[in-house]
Amino acid sequence: MNDGMDDFLGAFDEKSVVGIMGGHGLSRTDECYRKVVLTSKLLTETGCLMVSGGGPGAMEATHLGSWM
Asked: Distance (Å, rounded) from C-alpha 31 to C-alpha 28?
Protein backbone atom coordinates (compact mmCIF):
# COMPACT_ATOMS: atom_id res chain seq x y z
CA MET A 1 0.00 0.00 0.00
CA ASN A 2 2.75 2.44 0.89
CA ASP A 3 4.60 1.76 -2.37
CA GLY A 4 1.46 2.40 -4.39
CA MET A 5 0.73 5.60 -2.52
CA ASP A 6 4.33 6.77 -2.94
CA ASP A 7 4.17 6.05 -6.68
CA PHE A 8 0.89 7.96 -7.03
CA LEU A 9 1.99 10.96 -4.97
CA GLY A 10 5.34 11.02 -6.77
CA ALA A 11 3.53 12.39 -9.81
CA PHE A 12 2.65 15.58 -7.87
CA ASP A 13 4.81 18.41 -6.62
CA GLU A 14 4.65 18.11 -2.83
CA LYS A 15 3.56 21.74 -2.62
CA SER A 16 0.47 20.97 -4.72
CA VAL A 17 -0.99 18.38 -2.32
CA VAL A 18 -3.61 20.08 -0.14
CA GLY A 19 -5.27 18.33 2.81
CA ILE A 20 -8.46 19.29 4.59
CA MET A 21 -9.19 17.46 7.84
CA GLY A 22 -11.83 17.78 10.49
CA GLY A 23 -15.17 19.49 10.34
CA HIS A 24 -17.15 16.27 10.86
CA GLY A 25 -20.20 18.13 12.10
CA LEU A 26 -20.36 20.60 9.21
CA SER A 27 -23.81 20.39 7.62
CA ARG A 28 -24.27 20.37 3.84
CA THR A 29 -26.46 23.46 4.27
CA ASP A 30 -23.78 25.41 6.16
CA GLU A 31 -22.13 28.30 4.30
CA CYS A 32 -18.71 26.97 5.35
CA TYR A 33 -19.46 23.67 3.56
CA ARG A 34 -20.09 25.65 0.37
CA LYS A 35 -16.84 27.58 0.86
CA VAL A 36 -14.85 24.35 1.23
CA VAL A 37 -16.48 22.98 -1.94
CA LEU A 38 -15.63 26.09 -3.94
CA THR A 39 -12.10 26.34 -2.53
CA SER A 40 -11.42 22.71 -3.37
CA LYS A 41 -12.83 23.18 -6.88
CA LEU A 42 -10.57 26.19 -7.49
CA LEU A 43 -7.48 24.46 -6.12
CA THR A 44 -8.14 21.35 -8.22
CA GLU A 45 -8.54 23.48 -11.35
CA THR A 46 -5.10 24.97 -10.67
CA GLY A 47 -3.51 21.51 -10.49
CA CYS A 48 -3.66 20.71 -6.78
CA LEU A 49 -4.41 17.25 -5.47
CA MET A 50 -7.04 17.46 -2.73
CA VAL A 51 -6.89 14.92 0.10
CA SER A 52 -8.88 14.46 3.28
CA GLY A 53 -9.52 12.02 6.08
CA GLY A 54 -12.52 10.71 4.15
CA GLY A 55 -15.12 11.58 6.73
CA PRO A 56 -18.29 13.65 6.52
CA GLY A 57 -18.65 17.41 6.66
CA ALA A 58 -15.70 19.48 5.41
CA MET A 59 -13.86 16.38 4.25
CA GLU A 60 -16.82 15.35 2.09
CA ALA A 61 -17.00 18.92 0.77
CA THR A 62 -13.33 18.65 -0.21
CA HIS A 63 -14.00 15.74 -2.53
CA LEU A 64 -17.22 17.19 -3.89
CA GLY A 65 -15.34 20.32 -4.92
CA SER A 66 -12.49 18.41 -6.52
CA TRP A 67 -14.98 16.24 -8.42
CA MET A 68 -16.71 19.32 -9.80
From this structure: 8
Which pLDDT score, from 0 to 100, does residue 1 have?
Answer: 85
First to last CA, the chain: 27
CB count in 10 Å sphere of residue 61: 26
What was the pLDDT predicted at 17? 95
Residues linked to residue 51 through DSSP beta bridges, in sequence order: 19
Tell me how far apart the alpha carbons of residues 36 and 18 are, in angstroms, rounded to a whole number.
12
pTM above 0.90, yes or no: no
| pLDDT surpasses 90 at 23 | no
Q: At 15, which amino acid appears?
A: K
